[in-house]
Amino acid sequence: MSFSDGSGTLCSGVSLSSSAPYTATCTATYDSPGQRTVTASYQGDAGTARSSGTVGVLVQAVTTTTVSASSASPVVGGPETFTATVADGSGPAPAGPVSFSDGSRTLCSDVSLSSSAPYTATCTVTYHSPGQRTVTASYAGDAGTASSSGTVQVTVDRASTRTTLSSTPGAPHFGQKVTFSAAVAALAPSTSGPALTGTVTFSVDGNQVGIPIPVSGGTAVSALVAGLAPGAHTVVAAYSGDGNYKASSVTLNLTVACSTTINGSHHGSLTVTGSTCVEGGTVSGAVTVQPGGALALIGATVSGPLTSTGATGILICSSTVTGRVSITGTTGPVTLGGPAGSPCGPDTFGGPVLVSSSSGKVATIDSMITGPLTVNGNKGYVRISGSRIGGSLSCTGNATAPVDAGTSNKVKGTASGQCSRLA
Predict the structure, then answer these.
(1) What is the number of other CB atoms lying within 10 angstroms of the CB of residue 58?
(2) Spatial contact of 358 and 330, defined as CB atoms under 8 Å apart
(3) Is the pTM of this model over 0.70?
(4) Domains of the chain
(5) Most exposed of 63, 176, 297, 384 (fewest Cβ within 10 Å)?
(6) What CA–CA distance (Å, rounded) separates 198 from 206?
(7) Separation of alpha carbons 234 and 227, rounded Å
(8) Which residues contact 47 (CB under 8 A, 6 or more apart)?
């Protein structure tokens, strides 16, 4: 038997095997790629005729494909570039296409190799969910080079976020209601990820404001916050994160001021039309708060009655009012005193106190009232606790029954109506 491929003899004088099937083999090494037609020729013998047969073979150079990633830990929404490098040893330059896949999903198909060594092809993708990925780059081969493939693993992480916080109004006065707006955005390199979900929790001075607010369009707006006392406040917006984005938070230092502040002595009556603070001062005369006004008495003394109708907020802390107090129709909170040692300490009232028809929260805490206390027709939460009341305690028509928050009051007279159990 002899074997040839047109360019020359590959093997000659090869003996057939001595038993059926009668075979002869020829092993050849090719130095260049290309299509070959190999002919095997049987010379025959005394009892058998000559015969021949052909087979076509495609000779290709062996290749290896390796894959690298621009980052081993890409993030959701960020670009990730995979680079395939096809090496051909000493054979011809590879010229076939490369396709990239992630499991059953095609990332890039039929990407051309660069025309000079190193022979590379790239594929840039953006992931929209975290997790581990195995990316395969498959070189298809061509007439002179064989196909090959390689893999690389990456772990897609959640993207980091930044939360910013603002208030409306930006510089509030006492008595104004305030809202807080949080804007949440993904940090680079995440620029094309899915929409952020999750919630933002707002707090002021460590106290949560309402319920967590869902993020919509990258923003969340708090419920209205009323009754912020004059002075500095710490506001925090905490984004919860979600399946694609990490949590973040931000702190806003907010100062609530008054349009008018009295620190010394004020002789004669005082009419409040805007936001007025009496801090450590003395008012010798009647105080009248007109509709839309707001009054804060902090460590102050009022020698006379206090009458308020339609105020946006009343705050009396660590103060003394010698005359009758009548507070009606307040649209914001009414706070009369607080625990000893706190920023808003107990008050002393030298006459009867009436709080009626307020829309916001009402609190009378740890204060001393020489006369009766009447709390009627208020629409919000009402707390009366730890106070000493020299007259009766009467509560009727409030939207919810007043509570003492676990600290009963000392009432010299009769506790009646909704407050019958608070003494």
Answers:
(1) 11
(2) yes
(3) yes
(4) 2-59 (no CATH), 64-156 (2.60.40.10), 161-256 (2.60.40.10), 260-417 (no CATH)
(5) 176
(6) 21
(7) 15
(8) none
